[in-house]
Write a structure and sequence with these properties.
- The chain is α/β, with parallel strands linked by helices.
- It is 45% helix and 16% strand.
- The chain has one domain (8-237): Rossmann fold, CATH 3.40.50.
- The protein has a seven-stranded parallel β-sheet with strand order 3-2-1-4-5-6-7, with helices on both faces.
Length: 249
Amino acid sequence: MEILSNRVALVTGGMDEVGEAIGLRLGKLGAKIVSIDIDKSKVDGVVSRIKEAGAEAIGLVADPSKPEEAEKAVGEVLKKFGKIDILLNNVSDQEWAEISMLSDEEWHNSLRANLDAVFFFCRSVVPGMREKKYGRIINMGDLTYLGWPGRSNYCAAKSALFGFTRSLALELAKDGITVNQVVKGDVSESGLTEEEVAKVASGLPVQKIGNPKDVARAVGFLASDTSSYVTGQTLFVCGGKSLHFSMSV
């Protein structure tokens, strides 16, 4: 079983169902959780539920896409806990449009929210991990990075995350730091009618929609010492849906 006792886990964008499930999972495994997002009320709610589950957790309000706020947040965590062992980049801004309707601002906003935020937090966290000769960086991807009509800006950002993860894994391997990506598929029924759930499930090899806990368990493995020989990899949690794509590597 994965054990994260005395580890400090920083979860950015941890306010959606997947982010909350990850925080709960890592907390259950023994980690101290720091949840970061721009919405204070959501941060407070998630932190409260993690605490209720018996884990130590704090929340910080910051915009991950702003370098100065990312650096400040990392500094606050280091001041309180003295280290960051695990970084989970769960940022996701799912605004898109058909290419002819996509403005310059929407294009750059997508790259800033989905890619810049990951870079800023990695850059701020890596020096401390290098000093400790230990670290786990996990980037949260989306199956649409393989390509989806009408979502070129979002897919471009998430596809870039694939190359970023692999490159950073090679750069940090000698420092005892692993860098991996978890790609989620259909893992929530929220907002869907029974008919819509059935339709989505029928198109999946496993014939059912996944659960945020499925993603959290994958993250738990990559965040632990159990995965010390795994780096630069992409783990699909999609019920086999990625098998429909020729680029699912």
